[in-house]
Amino acid sequence: MGTLLGERIKRKEDPRLIQGRGHYVDDVKLDGMLHMAFARSVHAHARLKSVNVSAARAHPGVVAAYTGADLKGKVGLVPCAAGMEGLKVPDHPCLAVDKVCYVGEPMAAVVARDRYVARDAADLIEIDYEPLPAVVDPEKALAAGSPLIHEKLGDNVAFVAKLEGGDWKSVEADKSLKVIKQRMINQRLAPVSMETRGVIASYSPGEDTLTVWSSTQIPHILKTQLSLMSGVDEARCRVIAPEVGGGFGSKLNVYGEEGVACFASKSLGKPVKWIEGRGENLVATIHGRDQINTVEIYAAPDGKVVGLKCWIIADLGAYHQLLTPAIPTLTALMIVGCYNTPNVFVETKGVFTNKMATDAYRGAGRPEATYIIERAMDLVAHELNLDPVDVREKNFPSSKEFPLSLVTGVTYDTANYQKTLKKVLRLAGYPSLRKEQERLRKKGRYLGIGLSTYVEICAMGPSSRMPAGGWEFGSVRVDPTGKVTVLSGTSPHGQGEETSFAQIVADGLGIPYDDVTVYHGDTFQVPIGIGTFGSRTTAVGGTAIYRAVEQLKKKMARIAAHKLGVKPGELEFKDGKVETADGQKSMTFVEVAGEAIFAKQLPPGIEPGLAEQCVFEPANYTFPFGAHVAVTEIDGETGEVRLRNYFAVDDCGRILNPMLVDGQIHGGLAQGIGQALWEEHVYDENGQLVTGTLMDYAVPKAFHFPWFETENTQTRTPVNPLGVKGVGEAGTIGSTPAVVNSVIDALSPFGVRHVDMPLKPEKIWKILKQHPGN
Amino acid sequence: MKTRVHLNGAWREDDVEPRLLLVHYLREVAGLTGTHIGCETSICGACTVLLNGEAVKSCTLFAVQADGAEITTIEGLATDGKLHPLQQGFWEEHGLQCGFCTPGMILASYQLLRRNPHPTQDEIRKGLEGNLCRCTGYQHIVKAVEWAAQKIGDPS
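Above: the input entities. Below: the structure tokens describing the complete assembly.
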């Protein structure tokens, strides 16, 4: 390969974005476009006695108003793609019919000439509710006699899944083992992409075509689902993901509002736009996390962990969104973390409550797993009076043991956990931090040092394990001028793959980076695709492109060899030329393109044109890993936690562009640290969302963070020829337990062994107050 | 109501509804969609523009309140096709990912550097407290502002 891979190269995406010239969905305007607004439930649980839209319909400027009854039988249900054995799937209409099950559930829609009028009219919709008792606490939802959210389903349990392996009889019989139990809560979070959701549906009655612009991470999957929901033949449906202002999993979904927009456009024969408000985004875009975990860990006196049990109660909310029930199963899958624990038992209960659905939020099930195991490792250290570093080292498999098949049913590709841990300890100056901690404690100051060594599951994934295919499409085309067009079935929305994909292509073809243009996110342009989520875009989508480049080179080499009178294998691609190693026989890249496309003297058996494509099916997931150290200090007066230092060493396999990797890590850290210290999406006991604006939901700001000290190791994966693993979620997954472990470490002189997140000042202050010695 | 503004270097006059927010005026009436809407509560700063040289959140003002004012949006920041040092800095230092907060972040940084041409990293972080970014973790934004501060101080 050439020299472009591994370089810090500025992004192709940026010139348009820094000048305000990109086009997000709300920036798209179409002739005759109408605007839609929703009336949403103010009750968490209620029967709908009537939904009266007549005043709204009569409002000047209103074109149409729809209730759930109007849509019944005409628009498909909101889909759930998770196919699990025994899963209960309640009907999930785009607009509620008869009953509402969470605050913010859409019940009626108004279409009007502008968004102000649509909003005015939506407020004129009269709803007659009969409130029902709300089920907010998932543990109470499990209790006998709990009100039922979906009466037809018989109880509030969506599924129970068990993952079990090993020899528990002998573990339980071994009385030398220390059994450490802890209940911990992984609180509900809001993804809060800075751009909310938005959709424009444009149905053309003459052509019977449906074009949808959606702020989505999965245009192709959305196209299939909207075709099914709207009844427009899929071959005549097109989904365009324009510029997308962040997703973090919340746009890896198909939402009812999208179905309603398609229905409205189809009914009215005009484009219909809906742009979500922030209040709607917080109440009615999927939430993340929300698990109650009880972990029981069996450890030998030397710190060796021999068994792990965990009971997971996953609060799914009222309905399934696209992947709702699948997310907590990822927690079970990754629960052993970096430690090859031979005996595992996990029971996961998915529970319905009167809240918005949970689904994929950055990390999606793996942050919960990492939190459980990394908190548990610290508890083992605490109980056995060992250093958390030693406990981890004691339990790491050696790098020679990979690929490593675990009792959880996954095979870790490759890793060197010792190396990242050593590196981060050196970066942090661990021994001197411990000394400083001791010194400060004597002065009544509480410094905490927290560690997290994580592994995650990425590059999703083998199709056999994915609900809707896990392959990815890539193509590379050369035009007569020698410019190269790349298409990807992924749908990046900030990660920067227009840049890294162009690096792969320019590097492979030996042409200038500026000659490569990458397109994605339009199902008419890119024939097939899966999308961007699960840290898969470069590892799976990039590999498809890499393979297409290899195919293209083979063809170009044959054409050039024919012309030059050499063997294809003698030719190299570099500096815009296809030439022999000695440079004696040479054609420019553009000349070869011309030969291929104008097709005057092609060698026998070679088709004209230069357009190659590949669908890459990964044989396994990849398993990035890393080690983080968080240093916190507690303010003894206020209980406030100050994150003083943060050190991260991450291994995402081979790095194609270190600048992009740093950016992904930083953003991930901010979200993971946000969960540990500040973020919490709160419902009260009536199911009202308390944190329904950005004044209440604590999205971290710039001054909340210290300078992140980040480094990498690069352990290439054998799963794809690029050797890349994925980095989109690592920072989030690794950082939450590091921060919590750090705060618990700071509080350990008070005998504190666990505090639930977020570690807000009032919680810490109360703990300090209980200890008059402070 | 008739509203006249000097927008990115040119006067324009429009008849607008009194309740029309400035951000909607810029986006829907003037067609400048680089100014984004990220919340409804003046928290996120995605809608930040310069009004008579001061950074304001355009979701918090009515268009009619801007009558007679000079407004600069992100589209008006580059001059003669040359990027402003802040735009360049955000590009050089990877100060953006999805780009949605970026116009507001750049214009808030513009005011920050005018008030304090050589800010420390802490001052940059405090100075941008009115602007949220969910992608970058802010570190590269801090570097972008530092890059621009240096460039403005030493244009060579």
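Note for the figure: Chain B touches chain A through 56 residues (CB under 8 Å).
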